[in-house]
Amino acid sequence: MRGNNCVKALKKGVRILGIDDSPFTKTDSHVLVVGVVERNGTVEGVLSTVVERDGDDATERILEMVSRSRFLSQVKAIMLNSIMMGGFNVVDISALHEKTGKPIIAVVRRKPDMEQVKKALSNVCCAEEKMAKIKRAGKVYRFGRLYAQLAGIKQKEAGEILGRYRGVPEAVRLAHIIAGGIIRGESRGKA
User: Fold this and answer.
1) Phi, psi of 83 (to 5 degrees)
2) Any domain includes 189
3) In sequence order, what are the residues at sequence separation of 6 or more whose Cβ sits closer than 8 angstroms to the Cβ of residue 3?
4) Which residue, 53, 85, 112, 149, has most beta carbons within 10 Å?
5) 99-118 confidence digits (pLDDT tens)
6) Within a domain: residue 127?
7) Residue 29 belongs to what domain range?
8) What CATH number does the domain containing 157 carry?
């Protein structure tokens, strides 16, 4: 779904898939990633997968999780809490869009400081490849209190969608809460 048809299709009552990773420690080799299918504030499904901490498999694992789901044909957009899962395991949002046919909106609360990101990447494997994926994700746009990177959707359309929420979209917030609750036994913090 591309261009102007996206917002029309994202009318009230459509399903959104929100994805976030769980809390993790430096000793964890793998990190839980949770997806929540939400419509009108109601959870209609929960998906999960595991990615390598600071690895290079987030795009593939998320694609597998979404593709095997019975919800794929019903989901109208996929929203990520950042393009990074499990530390510096960077999601290629353009590839995710191309392979699912769904618009991708990766939201964050604070604008990324690219100098800090480059510095932090120097401590992980394959830093150049990860930085290339981050650059491919494109410009970081501001939408009220949120920032987002986009694939398969125009800035204006993404703004109309994100404008429906007071902060982090509900599906992403719920994925954050569920992932934290599973790993810690109780959720805490904000998405």
Assistant:
1) -85, 0
2) no
3) 154
4) 85
5) 999 999 999 999 988 888 88
6) yes
7) 5-182
8) 3.30.2170.10
CA distance 40 to 38: 7
- Specify whether the CB–CB gap between 51 and 87 falls below 8 A: no
Question: Which whole-number Å values give the CA distances from 116 to 24, 48, 111, 121, 155, in the listed order?
Answer: 20, 30, 11, 8, 25
**Structural domain tally of the chain?**
1
- CA-nearest of 74, 69, 15 to 41 is 15
Q: Is residue 138 part of a domain?
A: yes
Contact 61, 33 (CB under 8 A): yes
Residue among 93, 23, 87, 25 nearest 55 (CA): 87
Residue 135 DSSP SS3: helix
In angstroms, rounded to a whole number, what is the distance separating the alpha carbons of residues 155 and 94?
15
Rounded to whole angstroms, the Cα distance separating 124 from 189 reads: 26
Please say whether the beta carbons of 21 and 52 come within 8 A: no
133 and 96 Cβ atoms separated by less than 8 Å: no
Residue with tokens 């604008």: 111
- Neighbour-count burial of 162, counting CB atoms closer than 10 A to its CB (0-12 exposed, 13-18 middle, 19+ buried): buried
In a domain, 92, yes or no: yes
**Residue appearing with tokens 């939201």:** 107
> 9 pLDDT exceeds 50?
no
